[in-house]
Amino acid sequence: MSDLFPLTVRDAVASRQGKRLVGPVNLDLSGQGACVVLGPNGSGKTTLLRLLHGIARLNKGQITWSCPKAEAQRRQAFVFQHPVMLRRSVLDNLAYPLLLRGVPRKSAQTEAAKMAERIGVSQMLDRPARVLSGGERQKVSLGRALICKPDLLFLDEPSASLDGRATREIEDILQSAKSAGTALILATHDMGQARRLADRVVFLLGGQVHEEGTATDFFARPKTQEAAAFLKGDIVEC
Ligand SMILES: Nc1ncnc2c1ncn2[C@@H]1O[C@H](COP(=O)(O)OP(=O)(O)OP(=O)(O)O)[C@@H](O)[C@H]1O
Fold first, then answer.
1. Nearest CA residue ID for atom 12, ligand 1
2. Where does the record place a coiled coil (predicted)?
């Protein structure tokens, strides 16, 4: 299997109704560890993640992977801020992506039960997924994304509106996915989470990459006034 990374973004622009939402963006990501995308509300974090994953339309520029695009898309998954649960049990929600890939039901359910163990939902396998709490839904959605062993996982605000314990559980799952070799690209407003998970940071302002670098450098020595102000918790306008 060829490499998915590096990911190369050249002069990428997304516009809607005559308004430029993102771009031009230039980025090179190697795919090691977690890249955290930071920026004020409306700076383009969600749009950038969706562009990279191929679920938002690119108006100009190029996004290229080191393997063919269809293969790259098969090797990625996306966890949304508000996960949609299928009208099925927790077990069947977890098994679903494997069924879509042609894995026989019995094997898919065996794998789903193992994943449930890993993400801490094995006591609720038969429960309808739609009655789960926000934190439980987010864990199932993560399990559903990880069950096909993606090389890259996108996450858009994975623990927004979750409490400390649920956030910690989500981060534990992410840390172990990261250790197992899954690259993460994650948008978050939670600066504690960014500091705990990030290996690299991309800081967006007004739809453009304002600053980018290692997490150590970004948090200790931001290069721009705007990033320094953002880290201090000052209001930074897009
Ligand atoms: N389909 C669309 N049509 C028009 N404008 C859009 C569309 N999608 C997003 N936008 C606008 O693009 C800008 C960037 O939105 P985006 O959701 O990517 O930002 P964000 O950084 O993720 O924001 P937040 O932190 O509030 O979630 C915003 O001004 C938003 O209103």
1. 21
2. none
